[in-house]
Design a protein that fits this description.
Elements: H1 7-26, H2 28-31, H3 35-40, H4 47-58, H5 62-74, H6 80-83, H7 85-103, H8 108-115, H9 118-152, H10 158-162, H11 164-172, H12 183-233, H13 236-247, H14 250-254, H15 267-277, H16 289-295, H17 300-317, H18 319-338, H19 342-349, H20 354-362, H21 367-403, H22 409-431, H23 437-447, H24 452-457, H25 466-486, H26 492-513, H27 519-529, H28 544-572, H29 576-602
Helix pairs in contact: 1-12, 1-21, 4-12, 4-16, 4-17, 4-21, 5-18, 7-17, 7-28, 8-9, 9-12, 9-21, 9-22, 9-23, 11-12, 12-13, 12-18, 12-21, 12-22, 13-18, 15-26, 17-28, 18-19, 21-22, 23-26, 25-26, 28-29
Amino acid sequence: MIRTLSPLDWGIVLGYLTLALLAGVMVSTRAGRSVGSYFVAGRELPWWWLGTSMVATTFAADTPLVVAGLVATSGVAGNWFWWSWAISHVSMAVVFAALWRRARVITDAELVELRYGGQSARILRGFKAIFFAILINAIVLGWVIRAIVKISAPFVHWEEWLGPETLTALASMWPAALSVGGPGDTLTVLVLFGLVAVYSSLGGIRGVILTDLFQFGLALVASVLFAWFAVESVGGTAGLLEGLDLHYDAGEVLAFVPSAGAAWLPLNVFFIYLSVQWWAQFASDGSGYLAQRLFTARSDAHAEAGGLWFAVANYALRTWPWVLIGLVGMVVFAPAMEQAGPAAALVRDDPEMVYPLLMAQLLPTGLLGVLFASLLAAFMSTVDTHLNWGSSYLVNDVYRRFLRPNASERELVRVSRTAVVALALLAVAAAARIESIEQAWRFMIALGAGLGLPSMLRWLWWRVNAWTEIVGIVVATLSALILYPLFPDVRDEYLLVAIVSLSIPAALVATFLTRPVPDERLARFVRRVRPPGWWKGLPGVARKESVRWMAAAWVAGNVGVFGITFGLGHAVLGRPVAGAALVLLGVAALVLTTGALGRTRMHGRTAGER
């Protein structure tokens, strides 16, 4: 039976929304002191604040829906689409986190002029600020809005509450081009976005992170409880496995790694995830909102620990509740599909609807309100991050850099708060044009493919210059805009390989055809950041001993994250011995990781830290 939200459920939801608003009000005075306080919290936060905030931001309302849809269409192994990013996030933690923190910038776009200099760097900084603040931000926020519309549809009934005449009158006041679904869906989005825009504009990054801590805890607990109820509804783990075996090839559905000839996830697609996708993304070095969290760290060690905690929590802790719910959905809706039931028809047309339909069907009063509030929390955590992050580009890298270089701190904070509201309206417009959350995910990856390798190389190799990044991102964007409409039926993974094959060679050719960065600029960058790699013998480069321990930390970190992730997977799917062994292996590897990171610091990587 499909449930609606009871007064108790709505009380829980409204209580959470009030708490989020109060958090922004509480820190508004402190956030408004300066741009540094507004966007990087004075660089004084501990590792667990910034790491948990990273997880909360990626713990978006869209992610449970996408994961459930991936499981329904590609089996458990389909999650390699996003599991592969764990490699880049471990890289961020052990290689790039301390470098970002030592750069002491407010945005990753600002790093461009620290690293390169000259007219090309100014062009790149402005271009990246617009590209990320407007284009990438709009896509991300657009798919998150789409997700909350799907989640709220079974529970929010504006037509009943306001009456059809009032709802129609309100809808007529809003531009049709900015409508997201029906009039009720649009009103839901506007109410939630209005609330988020208020508290995130008031509290800045400190308010965002403060609410993130609560949002992550609420979302994680609620998803675990939902998974437990879902599995129990089909007879526990044994019933789930029996149901999968009845309707599907259970061995193929449950495989963590696809076999040769697998129909659910082709092996060559799996290899693309492992060999290309993890680095072929604009955030391969932790750029974007992850770097913004690293800027807030009180020390290099806290930046590294926060990045590592994010990698563990993001993949090991949050994966399996969503996977279990997706598997339960395959069992619950498989028989109904044969009878063409209305719920099954929805799932057949849109596998991402498994999550909200099971919510409405299985959860009791009270818990349904907690889970709905948790998904609102996940939605708001992502939205407030992207609004603050996007406004940091517009204010720091456009307004202050090009329009008003001498603007006062008070003026910049005022403009920042205005930019948050403007970006919120832009996101609503983007959501009106996004149909599939997963497809939006994949298209965004393709857009950023040309920045993946250059973003990492700029920290490691002196020869990279601004034109490396400019040509990479331009060729990747043009390739995506041409190839996607031209080959609509080709898998996105194959299009990604084609885009990388065009953009990376073009970026490298541009590197060698243009002048290198002047030595004095390189020397300044190396002195401040103390990077590893190849830097023409400039003083300040990380010592060889430090680099060796960094490599050991990278290997151990990947073993740790994947060991715990797959150990927990074996455990929840009824294989406790294998699960316990892998979890123990993962924990031991993470202990080695933290030890190796300590050795990098002991060997002088962070000597002279500012």
